[in-house]
Amino acid sequence: MKDVYYPDIALIDTVRDETGDVKTLRMRFKNPDTQKNLSYRSGQFFEVSIFGIGEMPISITSTPSRKAFFELSVKNVGLVSAALHRLPTGSEVGIRGPFGNGFPYEEVFGKNLLFVGGGIGLAPLRSLINNVLDNRDNFGKVIILYGARTPGDLVFKDEFKWWESQPDVTMLLTVDRGDEKWTGNVGVVTTLFPRAGIMSKNAVAFVCGPPVMIPFVIRDLLELGFTDDTIISTLERHMKCGVGKCGHCCIGHKYVCIDGPVFTYHEMKVMTE
Amino acid sequence: MSRYEENLWIITRDNLFALMEVFIKTREVIAPVRGHGGEVIFYPIETIEDVAWDWQYVNAVLPPKRFFLPQTEVMFEYRHDNSYKITPHYDDQVRMIFGIRPCDVNALIFLDRFFGGGSLSKESTDEEPLFPDSHYIKRRANTFIIAFGCHQPGENCFCVCCDAGPFLEEDYDLQLTSMNADYVVEVGSARGLKIIYGNEHFFRKASSDEVKELERIKEGALNTFADTCAYVSKAIRRITEGKVDDSLWEELAERCLDCGGCSYVCPTCCCYNIVDIALSDKSGIRTRTWDSCAFAGFTRIAGGEILRSDKKDRLKRRFFHKLSYRYIEKNKRHGCVGCGRCITTCFADISMPSVIEAVRRQ
Q1: Is the pTM above the cut of 0.95?
Q2: Domain annotation covers residue B338
């Protein structure tokens, strides 16, 4: 019987600074077979261990369409994430998973996709965006709307050019507060909606960001004609076990770690805390 | 009734004592023991003299949960020399729990389904679990269950309202019931039958009169229960449908002391936290410890926000988990076995029966 609590060892190959407090760690499993056999869905997460400090759930930000490695983007907010930020390349960490349901993928073949991200919330979306763009023919129009507090808080800036250059992709950025170099949009992410050319027909919206952002985005999406079932988001909980046992992530009768973290707005609406 | 075999057996008290001495030599035997303060607790025994017998107690103050899910348990140890080496810790101790009451056995069956995906005392499980918990499953598989049927309830018992007693119908190894000076023995599993056949000289087959007498004892025991807490299904329906007004939880929250005692004494509560302990720069252990949804920190997320910071939401959560039909569907029973320990423990009178009664009155 596989021990679901037993972590595999992974190595940190490269560390990229996204912002002042977000790093992207590119990793691979130490055992080449484990890496080779790794399969995951965009939207799933790993439980990441820094032995002696603890374990935390982190969504996978790399795309399953690129197989030699996986990537995790980590904001420095707590004990384990701070420890992860201190690790040099070559360090070993423990990995359990992948866990969770992940975003619908095959289910949205042929559809127009709208991605709305805020801050570090772009991390799980980035996995799906790259997976979609690596398999461009399977999907319709792609719109990416992304906002952060300041230009310095935008993550994955290196990839924006590539995303924009892909066929039939609209990409718009915004910040809450600009700086002297910023010439783009200033305002919350919903201020991008009127000029993004959003069509709700045959479309699905993926929304990830800080809790304060979500209700406003959903309100505007519903006005644009999206429905409870075509708005998809993720819920944040501290999933300690990842396997539906420890109880920390329960909402209503759902375990965010196995029934989520991806839910439709319809599913979220009927949940009772 | 679904006994493993239709035969009932009789064992005299002397023979039971002698048989238990044999077991004590070959495995760890956990039995009800009277502590220095007078309470009965489950504890490993060294001699049969230590046992508090079925006529001397109704139930132990704590369920024997800790022998399956210890309050703190080491999941693995790690060591870093040039690379990390992880050594899982499993508890392979062969155990017998002697004198466990039917409510606590039913709680174990609940935990079996939750941690193992099916009833672990049966040869095959109902379904393949998505993520089997090997630590729990190993302990459970290595533990033999000798239950004591209950002749009469304790003052806080309500197992009859929870389909969890006062006698077991399935999912035990052996069930003993006092009859005159002897015990009548029901066999509930293949390994139970193996114990009988392996120690046949201690047992004799029950006569047809004794079979009838056992049925009379069981009927009589049922009749000694007061008609308490008979509104479980009403609470289940109202809580499932979200028809309980928040004012009920607000009222309870004013009294709740946030102590988590309800979870710790509950035989079906099994939420846990995972904590690393560094023992040196290079080595340490990962542990899991009991946790409780009553604690504010239970839903703390990165950055420090607490999602159920309001006490009323935590109480609502606890009783939703115990009673909602959504969970009954998953766990095949509601999350209470009527042991009454929350009644005994809670300083604020927030127990399963008091909540069910409050829901009924609302």
Answers
A1: no
A2: yes
